[in-house]
């Protein structure tokens, strides 16, 4: 009987195998060469997620409670873009050596705005600002240059984030074109449509600290919604009722292919220092409404905006930001570069540890609509910061 069962199983596996591989054909070297240098991979994304609690334990706990991410009408959102974080497209490519035309020249930043503006020009739109952007000049923002495609090194991984359909909130590109809006919309209207293509909302109920006896998953932080402390014993809420709503511009994730070595800048010389291969993340975003209660200080911030609509309206690389704030994140490993002051070795000078470097740059404007103390709701006024540009470098290691 056992042999019979084995025979049935073998027959079934064989049948499935034949069905699966019936159309598979081996490719010779010449055919494989024709596969390389193609269009890469495109992924369209829509998502919404929620995490009840995130807990990081050292001896005590850091708690993030009630995290939600979605479209700008999710939760307490005031937008009209729906509850899903959607209309987002990821173009994934691994750059070549340039021997095939375009295999290492890929979309970057607002480079697609040139092609989009050309669509309006081709439809006979008479607003000259479209022709300006198509030619690489943003005449709306003082003649700032518009991003071009970027040339990457052989083997670099590049993920370009942009919208799936820039006209989705107007019924989609087909409906927009059928209504002759490509030829009749002025530049300001058209840019506003594209700006709102990818909306998002992030909510966090509370961020705080807990003692080592905290029961993980108990959601014990106080959410300052009524002014009455209700947190579990042994917890302190740092921030509560955090909400961030806005729009995403283009983003670029670039992972270098420079090998596994280190540049020798560390204290121990060769083989130490900064990794030769790094991760870069360039992101354009606009926050239209941000609110939070800073419980630990008793301060409430309301109607905060982060953008680049005033003063210098270029991004960190000097090209037009199209009124989005711009940030660049650089991440890489560091080896034998962080002095270990807790070492017991007498050779303290040689006792270095590894870590991770996180370097951040930001450029944009910040508006704070209202600042109030406690639960009074009485604002002390508004704050406006124009042309903020910052650089912050971190090296994180264990101790």
Order of helices and strands: HHEEEEEHHEEEEHHHEEEEEEEE
Rounded Rg: 27 Å
Regions with pLDDT < 50 over 5+ consecutive residues?
1-37
Number of domains: 1
Percent range of helical residues: 10-25%
The largest sheet, given as strand count, sense and whether it forms a barrel, is: 13 strands, antiparallel
Shape: globular
Q: How many E-type strands?
A: 17
What value does the average pLDDT take?
89
Distance between the termini: 62 Å
Q: Roughly what fraction of the amino acids lie in strands?
A: 35-45%
Structural class comes to alpha+beta
Write a structural description.
Helices cover 16% and strands 41% of the residues. It has 399 residues and is α+β, with helices and mostly antiparallel strands. The protein has one domain (37-396). Strands 1, 2, 3, 4, 9, 10, 11, 12, 13, 14, 15, 16 and 17 form a 13-stranded antiparallel sheet that branches. A hairpin with a 4-residue loop joins strand 13 and strand 14 (299-307). Helix 3 packs across helix 4.
Strand and helix layout:
Elements: H1 2-21, H2 29-35, E1 41-47, E2 49-57, E3 61-70, E4 85-94, E5 105-106, H3 112-122, H4 128-134, E6 137-138, E7 144-145, E8 150-151, E9 157-163, H5 173-178, H6 181-184, H7 187-195, E10 199-210, E11 235-255, E12 273-274, E13 279-294, E14 299-307, E15 325-339, E16 352-373, E17 383-396
Antiparallel strand pairs: 1-4, 2-3, 3-10, 4-9, 5-8, 6-7, 9-11, 10-11, 11-13, 12-15, 13-14, 13-15, 14-16, 15-16, 16-17
Helix pairs in contact: 3-4
């Amino acid at each position: 009987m056992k042999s019979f069962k084995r025979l049935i199983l073998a027959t079934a596996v064989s049948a499935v195998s034949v069905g699966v591989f019936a159309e598979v054909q081996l490719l010779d070297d010449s055919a494989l060469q024709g596969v390389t240098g193609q269009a890469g991979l495109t992924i369209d994304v829509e998502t919404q997620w929620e995490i009840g609690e995130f807990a990081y334990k050292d001896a005590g706990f850091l708690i993030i409670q009630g995290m939600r991410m979605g479209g700008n009408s999710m939760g307490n959102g005031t937008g009209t873009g729906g509850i899903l974080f959607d209309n987002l497209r990821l173009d994934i490519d691994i750059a070549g050596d340039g021997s095939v035309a375009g295999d290492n020249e890929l979309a970057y930043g607002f480079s697609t705005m040139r092609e989009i503006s050309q669509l309006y020009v081709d439809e006979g739109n008479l607003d000259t600002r479209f022709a300006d952007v198509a030619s690489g000049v943003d005449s709306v923002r003082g003649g700032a240059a518009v991003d071009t495609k970027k040339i990457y090194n052989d083997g670099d991984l590049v993920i370009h984030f942009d919208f799936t359909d820039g006209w989705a909130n107007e019924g989609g590109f087909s409906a927009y074109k059928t209504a002759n809006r490509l030829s009749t919309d002025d530049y300001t209207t058209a840019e506003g449509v594209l700006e709102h293509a990818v909306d998002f909302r992030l909510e966090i109920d509370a961020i705080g600290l807990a003692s080592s006896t905290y029961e993980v998953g108990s959601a014990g932080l106080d959410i300052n919604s009524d002014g009455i402390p209700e947190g579990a014993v042994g917890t302190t809420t740092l921030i509560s009722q955090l909400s961030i709503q806005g729009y995403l511009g283009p983003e670029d994730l670039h992972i270098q292919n420079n090998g596994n070595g280190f540049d020798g800048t560390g204290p121990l010389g060769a083989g130490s220092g900064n990794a030769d291969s790094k991760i870069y993340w360039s992101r354009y975003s606009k926050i239209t409404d941000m609110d939070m209660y800073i419980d630990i200080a008793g301060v409430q911030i309301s109607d905060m905006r982060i953008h680049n609509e005033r003063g210098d309206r270029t991004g960190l690389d000097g090209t037009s930001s199209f009124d989005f704030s711009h940030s660049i994140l650089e991440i890489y490993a560091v080896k034998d570069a962080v002095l270990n002051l807790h070492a017991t070795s007498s050779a303290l000078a040689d006792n270095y540890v590894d870590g991770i470097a996180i370097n951040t740059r930001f450029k944009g404007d910040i508006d704070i609509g209202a600042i109030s103390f406690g639960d009074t709701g009485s604002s002390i006024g508004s704050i406006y910061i124009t042309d903020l540009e910052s650089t912050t470098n971190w090296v994180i290691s264990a101790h």
